[in-house]
Amino acid sequence: MRKSLCLLWLAALPLAVQAAPPSDDSLRTLFEATKAESLMDSIYGSLESSLRQAMQQASAGRTLTPEQQKVLDLAPQRLSTVMRTELSWARLLPMQMAIYRETFTQEEVDGLIAFYRSPVGRSFVDKMPLATQRAMAATQTHVQQAMPRIKAAMDEVLSEAKLAQPR
User: Fold this and answer.
1) Coil, strand, or helix at residue 164?
2) Angle between helical axes of 36-59 and 24-33 (0-180°, round to 10)
3) Where are the domains of the chain?
């Protein structure tokens, strides 16, 4: 009985070793290789202009008092400052490390590090912000073009549910 338990333990050992969670050092190395912190910084760079555009769209067609306009003009900067603080890399890093530790094995992290340190991996990291920016712009344009159809479908659903606003 004892011998079979030892054999079972020895047979399971490679699986346990293979499924080892990644170390904090390897996760930090991966985040450095993927330039995760600078990616977050680039997101913040476009955040304020996106917020400014959203505020302009929200107030389009409305007559605002000078005081209201001043508040709306300052809002993107204020919101961006709060988001930079609340979503700073220093605050997100422990959460990201926990997520990666729960999701990836050490072997997988080692493979990712090797990829992101390769020429193709470095190129991917360098070009990903631009690809993401282009994808977001294209998606935003697509959503704006689809908005009349989306609104019409929503109006139809609300009408069928007898929740439409009386005109």
Assistant:
1) coil
2) 60
3) 21-130
